[in-house]
Every structure is written in structure tokens, then in C-alpha cells.
Design brief:
alpha/beta; Quinone Oxidoreductase, Chain A, domain 1; Rossmann fold; 2 domains; seven-stranded mixed β-sheet; six-stranded parallel β-sheet
């Protein structure tokens, strides 16, 4: 077994392509309650880039290794660990730093992935599919045939919303910025796909037969969030989980007075911190069941080795990608 690992490290906050370096570190040794996990895949999420830049609410003590998400294989166990087996594929906790070859982690914080799920797909179940699951369960009591509307529908979270909603019997209005995405998202199960604009409310009304839409999912902010709010029925809820436009919500008083809209937010890291272990495992059980049926496979545009971290984060920061940028590790 290797006696050293490679790990991505930053010693100061700033432009990821400038502040990230790859370091050689000793191979980790497990404490009695820990497992050693050899990482197999780790994605680059917007939150990872924001954290490196110093713009995220969570800051790891510096120097730090980034990476909120990842999956790997257990290769060693501390002497008091009984509930894990060597060779198990596991999902890692979000407060760890996954951009490294291997890591020691408390065994109780690992989520064991059932057979049949590829490590690359397992590595991307924890943030976007889980966010989508919570968005569809925690805010509005939707019934079979009910409608919801979301912007940034081509994002990883948006695609997960489409797949989960369809599986649960809900109908989706999916708002995008580029017309070339319409056919692609329709093929993935989106019931209605529309390009954002000032006439969105009327287009939604026409496309859904004036359906009552009680749940809006906002990952953009700014004018896009206002277009979503205008499309909602009175007494509806809009949940914000992203701010891709970097613009605040600007909601006219009338939407509150005359439509009595509710505005909520979700930060999936906080949900994990507050949920009980049975609550977390029940949600994962449902996601694993869907993944085993071929759903929730996040699209990957390109995989990089850790040694090409600067190119990888530069690629991940670009818009108009067709999928995630990930780090993939040699088994």
C-alpha cells in the first residue's frame, strides 16, 4: 500500500486556480473509531469554489483541503470499528475535504452504498439529489399530478428535481436560459420546458392549462426569481437554494399582500447537521433505490486527476457546461 497520498491544499483564500496546490502527505493511520477511505471520485461543486474563494459560510481552518462531496472504498479499520467492512463503498461527510487520495474518518459518519451503484455516481448523490429530495418533501405537501416550477432546470440539482418529481408523480415546469436545452430536458422527463423571460407567467399558464402551481424552486435569484414568483398560485411557497445570478430577490409588495407568498430557503449542509442518523439513512435509502433503477446519474463532462487541479477548477468555473467536472482516482 502507498505510504503517501496526494492532497489538494490551499493556504489562503482566493482564485482557486491560483491558490490550490497538490501536496504529498503521509498515508493516514486510523484512530480506534476511524476507517481509512481511499477516494474513488469527488466532484467540483460551486460551493467548493466559493469556499476556496472565502465566499462560503463554512471555512475550514487553513491550510485546508477542499471538497464537500465524494465516495471511496474502505481499505483499513480502527480496532474498535465493527459496523464496517473493508471493501465497502461509502459516501463521505461534507466537513472533511475529499480532494485527496485517502482520508481517515470516523466510521459512524460514513454512509455505506449498496451494491450496483458506481462510485462516480455515488460521489454525487449527497448534495444535489438530496437537495432535490428535500425540496420536494419539506415545504409543500404535493399530491400525484400536482405542478411545481423551477429555474436553472439544467443544473445538477434541477435535473435531479425532474427525475425525482416524475418518479413521485409530480409535474414540472422547467425554466432555462438557452433554447437548445428544451429538447434535452423534455427527454429527461421535464413536462414543460420554457426559456426565461418577461412573458414567462403567460407562457406557464398556457403550457399547464392554467394549473395551480404551489411550489417554486429558485437557484438563480434576481429577475428569474421574480418571474417564478409571478407564476405561483396564491398562498404558494418559493424555496431558494442557490444564487447563480448573484442578484438578490426583488419581490414587489403586492406579491406578498395579494398573493400571500411564502419565501423559504435550504442549505443542505445544515439539514445534514440537524437530521438524526435514521432520518439521513431513510433519505439515502430512497435515493439509493432510485439510483439502482438507473435514475439520478449526474452527467459528467470531464474527469481530471488531482495533478491537474488547476485545469479542473478553471473548467468547473465555466458556464454552459454539459455536466459536472470531477476528480477520478485510480482504483
Amino acid at each position: 500500500m502507498n505510504k503517501t497520498i496526494n492532497a489538494v491544499v490551499y493556504e489562503t483564500h482566493g482564485n482557486p486556480a491560483e491558490v490550490l496546490n497538490v501536496e504529498t502527505q503521509p498515508w493516514p493511520t486510523p484512530a480506534p473509531d476511524e476507517a481509512i477511505v481511499q477516494i474513488r471520485a469527488a466532484p467540483i461543486n460551486p460551493a467548493d469554489l466559493n469556499q476556496i474563494e472565502g465566499k462560503y459560510p463554512v471555512r475550514f481552518p487553513l491550510p485546508a483541503t477542499p471538497g464537500f462531496e465524494g465516495a471511496g472504498v474502505v481499505v483499513d479499520l480502527g480496532k474498535s470499528v465493527k459496523e464496517l467492512a473493508i471493501g465497502a463503498l461509502v459516501i463521505l461527510p461534507h466537513n472533511l475535504g475529499t480532494w485527496r487520495d485517502a482520508v481517515a474518518v470516523k466510521a459512524s459518519e460514513l454512509v455505506v452504498v449498496p451494491p450496483g451503484i458506481d462510485p462516480v455516481h455515488a460521489a454525487m448523490l449527497k448534495i444535489n439529489p438530496m437537495t432535490a429530495w428535500r425540496l420536494l418533501h419539506d415545504y409543500v405537501d404535493l399530491k400525484n399530478g400536482d405542478w411545481l416550477i423551477q429555474n436553472a432546470a439544467n443544473s445538477a440539482a434541477g435535473r435531479a428535481v425532474i427525475q425525482i418529481a416524475r418518479d413521485l408523480g409530480y409535474k414540472t415546469v422547467n425554466v432555462v436560459r438557452r433554447a437548445e436545452l428544451i429538447d434535452e430536458l423534455r427527454a429527461e422527463g421535464g413536462d414543460v420546458v420554457l426559456v426565461d423571460g418577461e412573458k414567462l407567467r403567460d407562457e406557464v399558464k398556457d403550457a399547464t392549462g392554467a394549473a395551480s402551481i404551489r411550489l417554486g424552486l429558485n437557484a438563480v435569484g434576481g429577475s428569474s426569481a421574480l418571474h417564478l414568483a409571478n407564476s405561483l398560485a396564491p398562498g404558494s411557497t418559493m424555496v431558494t437554494f442557490g444564487a447563480m445570478s448573484l442578484q438578490p430577490l426583488k419581490i414587489p409588495n403586492g406579491l406578498l399582500i395579494f398573493k400571500d407568498l411564502r419565501f423559504r430557503g435550504i442549505w443542505i449542509n445544515k439539514w445534514y447537521d440537524n437530521a438524526t442518523k435514521p432520518e439521513r439513512m431513510e433519505a439515502f435509502r430512497r435515493l439509493f433505490e432510485m439510483a439502482n433503477r438507473g435514475l439520478l446519474k449526474t452527467k459528467v463532462e470531464r474527469a481530471y486527476p488531482l495533478s491537474e487541479v488547476k485545469a479542473a477548477v478553471t473548467h468547473a468555473a465555466q458556464g454552459k457546461r454539459s455536466g459536472k467536472i470531477i476528480f477520478e482516482f485510480v482504483a
